[in-house]
Amino acid sequence: MINQNLEKNNNEISNKKMSENIKNNYAYTFFNSMNLTQGLWMIYLVSKGQSLFAVGLLESIFHITSFLMEVPTGAISDIYGRKISRLLGRIIFIFSIVLLVFANHFIFFAISFVFSALSYNLESGSGEALIYDSLKILKKEDTYMKIFGKVEISYQLGSTIALILGGYLAKFNYNYAFIGTIIIAAISLFYGFFNFTEAIIIKEENIKEKKKLNFLTSIQDQIENSLSTFRNQRKVGYLIIISMLMSSVATSFFFYLQNYFKFNGYSELKIGFILSIASLIAAFGASKTHIIEKYIKERGILMYIPIFMTLSLLGISYTNYEMFFYIFLTLGESILYIAVNDYINKLIESEYRATILSFMSMAFSLCMIIFFPIIGLIGDHYSLKTSFIIISWSFVIISLFNYYNLAKIKKH
pTM here? Predict the structure, then answer.
């Protein structure tokens, strides 16, 4: 009887901590998204003498690093803990920003971007895995899409404030935005340290067995086991490819539109305000993803949202209403991202969750390595509008292929 009461109390404590993980993640995500430099760094680097192509190369360096390190860092999260991975990511992010402030040469910018990528790697997958596993312990994983929609609201609200505040500070000095980002990152680091609890649902003996192996062997073992999931779940691979293709182009347009607006006479504050509107609308759309999915179902999300985003890309490319169509692009990207995350989490085991979600980020990085410098190179030699047109028509082909493929599957 005493043992039963003790077990019941332990379960209640565990459930309470898991519920707190979900609540605390909203605030942590809010602080994490308050990167005051996100709407400025391309303009900042150009102001320091870098060409658009050089900036594109720096972003490629970021994504090459991310591509190479994404899965190993995901394995670290699965083996050593989601909380440890997230906090280590914050520490490395702070270091990357400090380095960027003092850098004046391409090499040092590149080193900063390498560390920035590592911080991104350590966070990506770990945050989603921590929340999904917390919900799994609470037996509420079916609410993940709704919860993740709220997380996206926190992210977009923080991003909105950061875009406006960063643009305001840049009017006086770009370094003010970088210093503010460092302070906010330090706040999120301490908040995460004191408010997250590991969601342990993997068998304890499995964790101990992995930790007995040396570091490289344990990472290799984790990756090999995760890859077997792809062989058994081909749908996971398809979901990752189509969603990351669309996310990468939305992200590329986000960054290059900053310079496009700047070249057309917009101030940093006005650019931040414009981009913040898109963030707010994207946040609203993200919060309604579970409702949209209820009406058009999974197939509808996967077939129609990419087409919706592609039409938005064409609107940016061929009209003078770039901001209007960019809002639709970010709206579609948020809905697709939330929905696909939910679909993938339902298909994979917790033991390999962060590693497999890291494959998702790895695919994103690969797409960015390809698209980002191409846009910059064409923009340097012709114009950014020309870049937008070429990328848009590439995605017309991709969207039509995706639609045809899913329609064919339905037919059979």
Answer: 0.68
